[in-house]
Amino acid sequence: MSASGWWEAASRRVPIAGWPAWARWLAIALLYLWLFAGFWLMFKGSQGIRLLGLAMFAAGLPLLVHSGRILMRERSRPADRRYVRQFMPAMLLYMVVMLYVWPLQQGMPPGWLKTATVLSPVVPIVWVIWGSICYVLASDEMQRLQHLVALAIGVSVVCVASLALGFLGAARMIVLNGSLALMMVYPAICITYGVVRCVLVWRARSE
């Protein structure tokens, strides 16, 4: 049974939508704690500990995609299940690449093989972005507008923050790692976009 199919079966047996608000929020908090613990273990300890962290992270990913539906007391749509089938393997591939492939570039001489190894994490990220685009296109008109507004606000916030950090760095008031700063642009946009969209969905449901 696929991850999405398991979630649908579990939601029928355990009607999470009927839980009180505090219970649903507690479940989401525990889910994020589980994911954080798995992510932390993937970069700590021995090989076995890292594999345990990867397994924990993989187990929590399907629920992460469905967490918004849990809070809104709605059943997952076919588009949600398709997104899980794209998002989950892409993120797992990204973690595996970052743990076991990307570190190999440290001992490689310059050349096409090192370039391919260094850029290997980009492939699963492109997969995630493509899945996100398909997910948005499968949404209705109101949801598309929410996605568009959330993305516009998220990009604007990240742009202003990047500009401010750039001015501070140019004035030598802070020291910036340029490579790290560029790598954090996409995660920052994802976080701000996600937060803004949650606010927009909450406002739409409360009106």
Give a description of the structure.
- The protein starts with a helix and ends with a helix.
- The radius of gyration is 19 Å and the shape is globular.
- Residues 10-14 have low confidence and may be disordered.
- The chain is built from 9 helices and no strands.
- With 207 residues, it is mainly α.
- Helix 2 runs antiparallel to helix 3, helix 3 (47-71) runs antiparallel to helix 4 (78-101) and helix 4 (78-101) packs antiparallel against helix 6.
- It has helices at 3-13, 21-41, 47-71, 78-101, 112-119, 122-137, 141-170, 178-183, 185-206.
Secondary structure elements and pairings:
Layout: H1 3-13, H2 21-41, H3 47-71, H4 78-101, H5 112-119, H6 122-137, H7 141-170, H8 178-183, H9 185-206
> What's the end-to-end separation, in Å?
38 Å
Radius of gyration: 19 Å
The helix fraction, in percent, is: over 70%
Low-confidence runs of at least 5 consecutive residues: 10-14
Assess the beta-strand content as a share of residues.
under 5%
Any descriptors?
single chain; 207 residues; mainly alpha; 9 helices; 79% helix
Summarize the structure in short.
This protein has 207 residues and is an all-alpha fold.
